[in-house]
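Session log. Operator J.P. requested a structure for one protein chain; no other inputs attached. Running the standard single-chain path with token output.
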Amino acid sequence: MKVKLLLIAALLSPTLTCEAQDQPSPPPAAPSSTQAASPAGAAAPGATPAPLAAGKLADTYVIGATDQIEVSVWKEPAVSGSLLVRPDGMITMALLGDVQAAGMTPLDLGAQITVRLRKFLQDPVVNVVVVAIHSKNIYAMGEVLKKGPIELTPGMTLLQAMAQAQLTEYANVKKAYILRDEGGKRLRIPIHYKEALKGNPVYDLVLKVGDTIVVP
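Structure written below.
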């Protein structure tokens, strides 16, 4: 009798094992309230708002007449916008009227606007960005393909300017020179083009606003 029972148990055990393996795994436990996912698009805990864009120019740039600037006042679109610096160096803003802009850096102008806006707004946050330079030019004339004004970028050197001006095949670089107004006098500075090409920084002069490159 015991032998028969053992034989029956042996025959049934593989079937029971297979059925047990076919049972689906229990569903994962639902996350607790402390582990629940944040809503889509929600900021992570402790995250800080992204800072305002720094702008294309450093705060050491001095704004000039005809430059285009962007004045952004946080959460105040009525007094924000793109402004052209007038020939008299002023910009016109809502609430403030005329504001002196030429001769100031973006940082200084932002600080001035902030002080004046405090009369109308509580804790205004102002950001000033120069978006287009029109006031800083040098000039090229003579045997160059691009005559007239060339935008002066910060730190622009003689070779960089001459590359933009593009010498003609008739250019006499040995007699080329720079005209520069300084201290009430007009200076004539010889250009040593070949020495500058050799990489000598003494001859690859850093240009100043209003310089004129003359290539006979």
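Operator note: Residues 2-22 form the longest helix (21 residues).
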